[in-house]
């Protein structure tokens, strides 16, 4: 059976002149999106696909007429199977030019030949800064902010999270039904969720008082910010989950299809359900068991940035062992999370809300309350285990100082 990739962005049209390594289009498979670059200098003679068409792996993508082949036949760029390594390399006159597709695109947009740029990255890799420096030298152009500055939001201000999010898109009523094929990442969702349906889900919910954690994050957020990292609540949720998984390893396990064997995973690769332009993606933070909260935050920033650019790669999207979904950053209180096979457990957290609660003295105080909903594979996990894990996770988050005792 042929693998399929969807053509999602096109950078050239028929008649355009292209050079080697110029971006031709972006294709998306059910795992990643990749920029296809030209192998030749020449003129685009034929495009085989329109935007959002399904391109067949190994079939022609575009015909390019090269100088050498003028009046004879044209060279053909084929659709590759994606994903391949996002950091592609090509040969130029016997010399390797290393650069990511984004850097190649930046070079192309500014008519810069990569062969003329000196790369300052590992093994001479050409970085975005190298292109910008080159451009500055050529044109005296002012450099845009560094990538670190790009991901930095303005200094945080306290917000009321219960404010409804306004509808930002115009409402369009066409009056007609519309049918379209399910493609790209959505196809993965169909496959994964259909497989998940075979798992008997056990659900367990509780509320967590994050009053102390909210205070702690307010203190740590500017410090992390000064070190170039945006610190949300997720890194604490992930670290607390990992500490819990050390005590309840069955929740960080997988079962084979016939449910004969359980594999206890050594790494805590915790997936985060991410709402992206391309739909729901679940990249994972690798080895949370050996990461500090700051390191988790930094990795989460990286994944969020890649997610927003549609550039999450296969490594980021595979190998998860446990998942946490923060639907609360959008809204809502409860969820019914669906396990991502071959994982066996998943948690979903709702919005943190200011609510009245009683302290030990029976006095009412303003608490920061968040609800958590867990789902576990009931074939191998019983309710008591899920409940004990949840209690432990909750105790770390309600008393963040407890985490210090167990952090490595
Ligand atoms: N309640 C209240 N506020 C929350 C919150 C919650 N549950 N979760 C996050 N926030 C706050 C953050 O602290 C941050 O506030 P700040 O600007 O004061 O620092 C703000 O909301 C934005 O956070 P965000 O950038 O979304 O980071 P995050 O680490 O909390 O979440 C993702 C990262 C990837 C999980 C999130 O961006 C996302 O995609 N959520 C949707 C997940 C989804 O679709 N789930 C359903 C799967 S079926």
TrEMBL record:
One of its GO terms (cellular component) is mitochondrial matrix. GO terms for molecular function: acetyltransferase activity; dihydrolipoamide branched chain acyltransferase activity; lipoic acid binding. PROSITE patterns: BIOTINYL_LIPOYL, LIPOYL, PSBD. Its EC number is 2.3.1.-. Residues 98-135 form the Peripheral subunit-binding (PSBD) domain. It catalyses: N(6)-[(R)-dihydrolipoyl]-L-lysyl-[protein] + 2-methylpropanoyl-CoA = N(6)-[(R)-S(8)-2-methylpropanoyldihydrolipoyl]-L-lysyl-[protein] + CoA. The keyword Secreted does not apply. Residues 72-97, 143-169 are annotated as: Disordered. CDD domains: lipoyl_domain. The keyword Nucleotide-binding does not apply. Residues 1-65 form the Lipoyl-binding domain. Keywords: Acetylation, Acyltransferase, Lipoyl, Mitochondrion, Phosphoprotein, Transferase, Transit peptide. Residues 83-94 have a biased composition (Basic and acidic residues). It is an enzyme of class 2 (transferase). It holds the Pfam family E3_binding. It comes from the Eukaryota. Its cofactor is (R)-lipoate. Residues 144-157 have a biased composition (Pro residues). It is found in: Mitochondrion matrix. Coiled coil: none annotated. Belongs to the 2-oxoacid dehydrogenase family. PANTHER family: DIHYDROLIPOAMIDE ACETYLTRANSFERASE COMPONENT OF PYRUVATE DEHYDROGENASE COMPLEX (PTHR43178), LIPOAMIDE ACYLTRANSFERASE COMPONENT OF BRANCHED-CHAIN ALPHA-KETO ACID DEHYDROGENASE COMPLEX, MITOCHONDRIAL (PTHR43178:SF5). This is Dihydrolipoamide acetyltransferase component of pyruvate dehydrogenase complex. The lineage of its organism: Eukaryota, Metazoa, Chordata, Craniata, Vertebrata. The gene is DBT.
